[in-house]
Amino acid sequence: MRRDEEAEYREYVAARLDQLRRIAYLLCHDWHVADDLVSTVLLKLFRSWRKVRAIEHLDAYVRAMLTNAWLDERRRPWRRERPTAELPETVAAQPEPDGERGIGRLLRELGPRQRAVVVLRFYCDMSVEETARLLGVSAGTVKSQSTRGLETLRGLAVKVYSGKERR
Predict the structure, then answer these.
(1) Average pLDDT score over residue span 13-32
(2) CA nearest 69: which of 107, 27, 110?
């Protein structure tokens, strides 16, 4: 990679790193996993920077890479292992993008595909067609997953916040 290409890549990443971390966190709800996902995606992006830098909607392409990396990570069998012989080291919790009582908490209740659709459609402001293309599903699937996801979020919000409103 030439110096000017590397500088362009660095500039691109610097401008979007925080946003990519937030998107990754909204998908997986674990800052450590989110950082790993972003690192994986940025390494893949670096390797193919010459080809992809000219893509018209590069941000959407990178969000697609991030979403696919998260979905791939969830499919790995070692993710289901839960070692219990030793307790993990306690790490200071990092704040969620929307606070512990915010949308981040509610998104955790959605399934992975539904969460991906809701995050891409409403947090990343992608169209139905863009989301469908990114996830490799039909537009109808995106619409139904959006509808079901929003219904679930509304129901959860009523449960969570109804106690707060009565106080």
Answers:
(1) 93
(2) 27
Range of the domain at 113: 95-167
Q: How far is CA 8 from the centre of its chain?
A: 24
CATH of the domain at 114: 1.10.10.10
Checking 28-37 for CB contacts under 8 A at 24+ apart, the result is 28/70, 28/73, 29/96, 29/104, 29/107, 29/108, 31/94, 32/91, 33/73, 36/73, 37/66, 37/69, 37/70, 37/73
Q: Is residue 81 part of a domain?
A: no
Q: What DSSP string runs through 87-138?
A: PPPP-PPPPPTT-TTSHHHHHTTS-HHHHHHHIIIIIS---HHHHHHHHTS-
Residue 56 shares a structural domain with residue 106 = no
Its pTM stands at: 0.56
